Amino acid sequence: MGSKKHRKLTFITKIVVFFFLQNFCFSQAIIFGTVKDSTSNIASASVILKDSLSQSILSFAYTGKNGNYSLTTDNLGKFNLVFTSLGYEVKTVPITVKNLQENKEVNATLKIKPMSLDEVVIKSERAISIKKDTITFKTKFFVNGTEQTVEDLLKTIPGINIGTDGAIKIGNQEIEKLMIDGDDLFEKGYKILSKNMPAYPIEEVELLKNYSNNRLLKNIEESNKVALNLKLNEKSKSIWFGNIKAGLGNENFYEFKGNLMNFGKKNKYYFFTNFNNIGYDATGDINNLIKPFKVNEPSSVGDNQSVNTLINLVPDRLSFKKNRTNFNNAELTSLNAIFNPSKKIKIKTLGFFNWDEKDFFKNTIEVVNTNDANFTNIENHMYRSKSKIAFGKVNVIYNLSKNKMLEGITKYNTGSFNTNTNLLFNGNSTIENLRNTNRLFDQKINFTNKFKKNKAFLITGRFIDEKEPENYTVNQFFFQDLFPNNDGNNIEQQNLNEMQFVGVNAHLLDRKTNGDLLEIQIGNEFRKDKLISNFSIKQNNTLLSSPVGYQNSTIYHVNDLYVKSKYLLKVNNFGFIGKLNAHQLFNRLENKITLTKQNPFYINPSIGVNWKINNNNKITSTYSYNTTNTGIIDVYNNYVLNDFRSFSKGTSNINQLISSSVFLNYQLGNWSDRFFANTFILYSKNHDFFSTNSLLNQNVTQSERIIIKDREFLNFNSKLDFYIKQISSNLKLDLGFTKNEFKNIINNSNLRKVTTNNYNYGLELRSGFKGFFNYHIGTKWTTSKVKTNKNNSFTNNMSFLDLTFVLKKKFDATLKTESYYLGSLQSDKAYYFLDFNTRYKLIKDKLTLSLNGKNIFNTKFFRNFSISDIGTSAAEYRLIPRYILLKMEYRF
Questions:
Q1: DSSP 3-state assignment of 743?
Q2: Cβ contacts of 630 within 8 Å, gap of 6 or more
Q3: pTM over 0.90, yes/no
């Protein structure tokens, strides 16, 4: 039955795809030119294409800072091109479009219009306005009344994409930060704001292009970063306001949310809390809040530094929504504030407390089938984890003068985690317990001096100290074949993981008058890692043995003295980028037996070119050659227990690995245009890479890191975004391909070549109707293939349909459906989900009642399939059962 439904769905999908592709694949005429006055080009002038008879608006554009504009039309005939700008007379130019393939250039010179004192200028309100690098969206033109959080609001803004993990992207690029009235609290941890703050106070959303995190580097650094700024309506400024939402449902399901805010000119406060057991994750990836990572950012010293751990009992991520398997009981409180005690000082404080108890249920059948190993393992898991995390951050910005700034950031994090696994392994009852704690202290100081208009100097210092000890026990002993002289019945491993980092960096940016940019960095980074592991075999509570070769006491020092240089050369529409980074390393590896020192020197070069063919066509390409140094996780000398039946081992040696890569990106249009396409290809080759030499049997796996020559990786992705105005809907196409070739050794066999291919292809269509009804429909296929001496492959499909109804102004309803078709399974191939949300506004802007339902079909299990280079695995996951929640929200 499921197969017939799938074939029917596939057939209908193909018809829909064909229909939209037919509408998609047509040409457009491009009208472009320059607007100027008698002396210079005019920026932000309005260019409107009107029908010559009806005078209806067919297309419009605004001139850039150089006075250029470009717009498209898919109509033929006679038109009027109207040019307007404040302080100038309106100019109308008749044009004729005879061919949709033609490019028509129309330039205009506007005359200055004298303005008398009694003249009245009437401005019409625009849904979208553009001013230099800022695009402003008036939210009232995009919302339909169903939006509850900032995340819901941003989904309605054209060009802004929200991933399933809550990541906010402009086109394909993730934002740097999400601000409120120009102030930022959470940096890369912005999901905690977007998932919790209510949407109703937001009047405008500003998109900031070419954004600089450091205000003194604006127009100096070469930045393609983007950020979002939420502007509040006037009645929500400088007052205390917020909301409380409480919900209760069947089987003791509950949710409680609270927001208390005050956003003034001098001080800003945002306090919120969230308690729930319905699987809702109110924080997103918490590491983005504690350890935000900024790529190619001046003063980003130490962002990529973190302690390494060896044992992880967290279940793998699934191919469907996390909240369907997240049996949680979460309690979250966050207290955040911004103070401006004077015009020169800004203080940001953030306090975050999270308690969570999670359950996770998984049953697997793993079939290992290689030339040297053939067996089947059956595992039934029940995970329960308890975590407590407290995080505090103080950020002080002191503006010494208009062109000098001192910034200090202090962070402290403490966490305790306790994970228990009740496991049935091939019929043997097994209990795992992992207790670990984390303590992090992070201090960063940055000084910026913009000593000339286009020149700046930064000096940054950072100190990080992080510790994460682990204590892991298993009440069974599966290693009789490995340790035949021991008759223990349980095992224990204690790990001590520590990391200290000290870094200092001096950075000069020199923007030339012709637009060229010179960057020079000199710095030194020191990192010390300590890894101590003690593996014990026990009989009840009695220690029987601590086997030789399974204990580690490794201390690893790496001191990196470097000089980095970069030059951007601009020639017309071309930008040529050359990088040259020189590193002198001082490595020291110490264990109980040996001491190894190494002082390698290497240079990492990179070249790139940016070609702006015109406003709608851009090409970027880079080539890089990199040498990287090994880390502590690669060099420890003896085996470490990773889980109840697996050991891993490092190389015992210090190594440097060499790789090279080529990147090519083509962009057609801009993300805010009716048509936008972005395609990239990445090819990389690891001339040396870490692989594994593994010994596999049914009860024990031992893996040792080895260095192999030549590994290749290819990634292709293309995204197309097209607004179809005939049906007021946005069509998105997503095509991707990944190929990975590597080599490994299994059970002392010859070196095996493994090739994995992954394909994904999908489309979605979202309406933007102004009436009572809207829809969002989409489908995505994924195909995975693994080739060794045998071939494995499968194809899965996920489709969804969301319907939104706004009936009058008091009642709205949303229906969300999902279907999964798993072509790899022999039975239960199709799964269907239905969720709904209805709201009734009892008192406008004050009191709202809602009814939420999840998993209405009450699907209890979800089965999945995966393949690897050693075999296949089928997994069954328990899902949160059907629940219906009655909620009440009160605004104040």
A1: strand
A2: 651, 654, 655, 656, 657
A3: no
